[in-house]
Write a structure and sequence with these properties.
4-stranded mixed beta sheet; two-stranded antiparallel sheet; 10 strands
């Protein structure tokens, strides 16, 4: 069957990725639906229970009609799952039947039906477009690939969790949270920023100012801000020499701090908060000691594993919010005394300790 699939693909690609009409428009060919018992053994080859009928058909066709919405509006999680399962065919597009309540019933559909159908359609269009944009930007190295993995894996985890709940017989009713909506907005804004800078040659400084203005109303609503960083050997061998060359300064080698440390805001150090984080991380990995001058990266150590920077003057990331409690973590995965796994655990311990400290300050 794989040879037949390859032959069909090669035939489709001789004169373009898909057929063209006499007017030059794309002509898509595909079946109506994919869940038919009488297709087993004829359309579908012998298979095991985990065989994906939709993905199999998407390897032959570039469109399939979704029939089920005519009878009942599917939940958005189903639409997200369908989009994910045909991702191997970048030319694939769904067509969908409209709910019969809109076309075949005398009684007018209620507002709930309209909202439900819109919610079902959204993942088929918006999410596929957004994910495709991130994948394209990542493949072309315009954004870090870890960011692409983060965006795509989030949706896979959400869809997978919903599907698992259905398989175990306890379906979860999904209702988007405010933080989820804000996350999607942030993804869209970031994609627009990158595309705008590429397409219109907008300077990064202007885009940064625009983004700062966008999130400015939220600055006062943040209580704790933790910026997770890591230092690697390449900081000393590549980054700092390049930074010195850019600024026209001589490069002066420095020792990389061996261990975990925090950088507090000199204008608002919150020493008890910093020490609570250090105490928790010390149970996971070692804390960076001060050098012979009592410093870490040229700054005086004010407490074990803690230095202070002027966030505002240096333009450090945590200044984007006015959180009462701020800190910047640094781990060193190239350390001979720690593994990358320990460094990851240290970051988790830091976040948990910070949240525990905040919760302990809440009365009652």
């Amino acid at each position: 069957m794989s040879s037949e699939r390859n032959e069909l693909r090669s035939t489709q690609n001789k004169n373009g990725s898909r057929l063209k009409s006499e007017f030059g428009h794309a002509v898509r060919i595909g079946p109506a639906g994919w869940s038919y018992a009488d297709w087993e053994g004829t359309v579908y080859p012998p298979h095991r229970s985990k065989f994906d009928h939709l993905a199999y058909l998407a390897s032959f066709f570039d469109t399939i009609e979704i029939n089920s919405p005519f009878y009942r509006i599917p939940p958005p999680a189903h639409a997200r799952s369908w989009v994910r399962r045909v991702a191997a065919n970048p030319d694939f597009r769904f067509t969908t039947k409209i709910f019969r309540g809109f076309t075949h019933e005398a009684q007018a559909p209620g507002p709930g039906d309209v909202d439900a159908f819109k919610a079902y359609l959204d993942p088929l269009a918006d999410k596929a477009l957004l994910v495709s944009i991130y994948v394209a930007l990542g493949v072309n190295d315009y954004i870090p690939r870890w960011l692409v993995i983060l965006v795509v894996s989030r949706d896979i985890l959400i869809v997978g969790g919903v599907m698992l709940s259905w398989l175990v017989g306890s379906p979860v009713k999904v209702k988007p949270l405010l933080v989820s909506k804000l996350n999607t907005v942030a993804q869209i804004v970031f994609a627009c920023v990158v595309l705008g800078s590429l397409g219109f040659h907008i300077e990064a400084k202007n885009l940064t100012l625009a983004l700062m203005a966008l999130v400015a109303p939220l600055r006062e609503r943040v209580l704790v801000h933790i910026d997770l960083h890591e230092t690697t050997n390449s900081d000393e061998s590549e980054f700092r020499p390049a930074l010195a060359a850019r600024d026209g300064k001589p490069f002066e080698p420095e020792a990389i701090p061996d261990g975990f440390y925090l950088c507090a805001d000199a204008a608002n150090p919150q020493p008890e908060f910093q020490q609570a984080v250090i105490a928790a991380v010390a149970k996971v990995t070692h804390i960076a000691p001060a050098d012979a001058k009592g410093e870490i990266i040229g700054s005086p150590v004010v407490a074990p594993g803690v230095i202070e920077y002027d966030y505002a003057r240096l333009g450090l990331c945590p200044r984007i919010t006015n959180a009462r409690y701020k800190t910047t973590t640094e781990v060193y995965p190239d350390s001979p005394r720690a593994t990358p796994e320990q460094c990851n655990a240290a970051q988790v311990a830091a976040v948990r300790a910070a949240l525990d400290f905040i919760l302990a300050q809440v009365p009652g």
